[in-house]
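Entry 14. Structure prediction run on the chain below.
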Amino acid sequence: MVGQKGLPATYGGIERHVEEIARRLVARGHEVSAFCRLYYTPAGAQYHGVRLLRRPSINTKHLDTATHVAWSSIEASLGPYDIVHFHALGPSAFAWMPRLRGVRTVVTVHGLDWQREKWGRLASWVLKQCEYPAAHFANKTIVVSKTLRDYFRDHHHCDAAYIPNGTNLPTPRAAKRILPLGLNPGKYVLFVDFSMGDQHPAIQKALKQGPLPPVTLRDVAFLTWGDAKEEAEARARAAEHYATRSDEVGAIFEDFLQGLSDYEGGKRFRVAVRVKSPEA
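Output returned:
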């Protein structure tokens, strides 16, 4: 597995996707290796029999993925692997490399990353060019939505396999983790946002319109899902925005997220990702 930040998944949809696939393949008797970034996967980490290969990267916004995937692709090309599975548009640019030695490759496209507002003009252009390798460099291309399947068929004449993401349905449980936050079961609205917080227009719109119950900002459980730097930035924005205290809990991880979700009484559960185009 190449392209994910690492395992076990703490934040990131691709990381969770890889985590779920990898452990199921191991359970079926396959040997699975996952390349992990040093800052994401701690030394000595283990995950359900998956071999975790911690490798370096230049940990900046624009070089992190490229440098890590380049290293991982070279190593995977020289290793004893039958299949190398690349995840996301950017990493797909390296999907040709293992094929030079006869190793079959797969690319899974999780979204059109160039549409996300986090990227500047040049980075977005580079990511958009990676659509072609995602469609043609690997032995097979997988997409996780019918919209992506249609997009790659219409724009790249690629017969991509549609395999949607699944989920593990959690068991409803009594309120516990929300209580120290001052939230009451059934009396709050939860927004899950990838480090954009109150700046996301969907949050402001949802507070004013739609089927949500009438709420004020002090009824909102605002949280971010990202790394420490992104969390600090989101906290600073929230501090400027909220005149009165809201239940702004900062960056959180999976089990705490489940506790904040409607399985402990949240009125709504929304995931917000800001993109540049409505095609996303």
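Residues 189 and 267 are 5 Å apart (CA to CA).
Filed with the rest of this week's runs.
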